[in-house]
């Protein structure tokens, strides 16, 4: 069904979009005394299960084991907190973008593949409070690009796919949203976001 009128909600990914990027993970290699590329490989190898709700201790110890290292409980806590804060810290320009979109009156929502530690950071942040609807893979037991994720968002918002606009940095997630009937765009920064919103029917004042 084609949309009649402007979209009712704008949905954002967090990491690599509103929040931090993957570049920061290389800084953690020094904590374990390993090469950055080796750490990154281990970090991503077990990330899917972590995003779906596995315990932080299990995740970080699997990463360490792959690298031939052992972690103390204190190291696990320190790594996990730093990682969660890095992903959930707003990127430059994101706060102004959120404010501008909020002034249009459309609903704002978050949809992120994220572990519980990151979800907790976002929920407790000032900027996270701007988003009444926040869906995290660790809570719903599904991760993008599973089609069920997009149906879950529609149910949470009480809106059909045709009334949703979505931004994500991963093309596979954007494609899955489009296949679910959403207007979806690959994130290319706040300025391009405003252009994409305008093309989708969301006119942001002053943009």
TrEMBL record:
Gene3D superfamilies: HAD superfamily/HAD-like. CDD domains: HAD_sEH-N_like. InterPro entries: HAD-like_sf (IPR036412), HAD-SF_hydro_IA (IPR006439), HAD_sf (IPR023214). It holds the Pfam family Hydrolase. It comes from the Bacteria. Transmembrane segments: none annotated. This is HAD family phosphatase. It comes from Pseudonocardia yunnanensis. The lineage of its organism: Bacteria, Bacillati, Actinomycetota, Actinomycetes, Pseudonocardiales.
